[in-house]
Amino acid sequence: MPKLKGSEIRTIDKIFEMSDGYLLDFSDRTMAEYFEDELSIDITQEKYQINGGSKAKRLRSFIELEDGYLVGQVLRKLWQYKCDYKPEDPQEKAKLFEILAKIETGVSASVLATLSTKAEVLNMDTVSRDLDRALESAFRDPESAVTSACSTLESVCRSIIIELGFELPKKKDIKGLFDSVKRPLGLSPGEINVNPEIADDVRKVLSGLATIVEGIGALRTHGGDAHGRERGYTRLDARIAKLAIHSASTAALFLIETWQLKYPSKDLVKH
């Protein structure tokens, strides 16, 4: 997970009311129960008490130790929990989701910051792992699961564009990113290198895939949690979330397989 600035840590502390060791309105018991029931996490583990045993210190240790995906899931859940008993503060939400974007994408404001860390290579295994984790959370938090799956697909597209030395599109949503990778990967209608007897059929499949990708992005916008959600209101059920995740998985793994076929000696570094 990217290292958070002191100001970002203080923002998290303030949003989740962590002064004097507290965390929202949790007691030690209810915090442990909430993490176990809602997130399947044992927050009482010794590793989360390295800086102290208070509720706030355990959450801070959790943020320091765990990967960005899991930290993002927890902070989103805690935000939802807070909004269930307190009016949503738009300024707090904007600040939190800005931090979440950094945590979950693994990039800081400057792409150059990634040069100082070990590069992560995107391949079938690493992307399947990320999407499998999204699938596992589809029942307990379908909106976050869809957001995570869409973010993984966006990461694959963004990485292809940057590794090939192209500029990112003006519209950096999933549709814009996916459209930008089709030509360099030979997936545009006039550039498909397949047997002429099946070329039209393949074009139809690829056209359908592009429509599905656009739909995943729209579902993330309207039904995911990237833009917040109303208190106590769930827009997605697990069935639809799983459909979107499987679709994102199909698109992401197809792009990686196409990359490996077209550039067999070049790793796809994550950006």
UniProtKB/TrEMBL annotation:
InterPro entries: Abi-like_C
Species this chain originates from: Paraglaciecola polaris LMG 21857
Name used for this protein in its record: Abortive phage resistance protein
Superkingdom, taxonomy of origin: Bacteria
Abortive infection protein-like C-terminal domain ranges (all copies): 177-257
One Pfam family it belongs to: Abi_C
